[in-house]
Fold this protein.
Amino acid sequence: MKRENLYGGILAIIAALMGIIGHIVLFMNWYRIGMSADSAEPGCEILLKYIHPLMADLGLLGGVLFAVSAYGYFTRRNWAFFLSVIALVLSLLGSWFINVPYMAANLPPIYFPLFWPFVLLYFLFLRAVGKISWSQTLLALLTGIAYIFCWMNGVSSTSRIITHGDPIFVLVQRLHWVAMFGWAVVTVGIIIRPKEWMRVVGLIAGVTELVVGIPLAVATAQQLGRFSLFALAPISCLVLIVLFVWPGLWIKLTKSTE
């Protein structure tokens, strides 16, 4: 057995146990507490009641994919690394987002003990198992951050539509999902096999988020009288757009031959 397969199998088992057990324990102990908490942000009560279970679903599914990928590593299957990358994408989102409404409700960010180990596993999988270059690893991390921020804008806009129905949220809500799916595809693609069309998808996702994210960030900042978390997605997308359009930088970072 190759060393990479051994490392991958061990890491996948650790990730599977951590994701499955961690999400079950945290959800069972904190779901009711989150639902009954007073939130400082409008719409967070919806996130704590309905989105929390969805995040647990993503975390548990990520754990399942890790478990199956462990089998793939130990039996030297070519699909094992791809499956673990998908599991990482799901697990990082599942262990990150719900911390935001918890902190808005003056509760501890209970999923950080899962999120930060998954960040470490991200680097271990890509560098030790997949032998992915540092430039690809860091670029995929940036696109993954944009993917999570676009998700945040989409789901938070949905909760604001339910609680307030402001036209700005109704206008922009759906295109945040478009940007999110675009960045998810680009993130996986950069890691597995970067192609020129992925750069195009990234540009479409980034510009889409700028079009809907900037007006949303301005409107919510005016309502709140402070910096709006809705600005994180367009800021991250602007950085990535610059990287993607910089002459020759895409090929240099991804080692793409196209």
User: Anything to note?
Assistant: The longest helix spans residues 3-35. The chain has a mean pLDDT of 90. Residues 1-131 form one domain. The chain has two domains: 1-131, 133-258.
